[in-house]
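Input record (one chain):
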Amino acid sequence: MEITKDMLIGELIRKKPEAVEVLMRFGMGCVGCPSSQMESLEEAAMVHGLDLDKLMAALNA
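The corresponding structure, as predicted from the sequence alone:
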């Protein structure tokens, strides 16, 4: 499954639970918060000041 920047965090976690470890490593500790159900990876990266390209590479590795 290819992970895309417009994928919602909640959707990603449901489809690929092992992604939680990557998200946590990047500083996204709120993977279980309600906003994760409506927030895309791109939006979350922007809010957390993360490099989206690096995050996407790690999630798709």
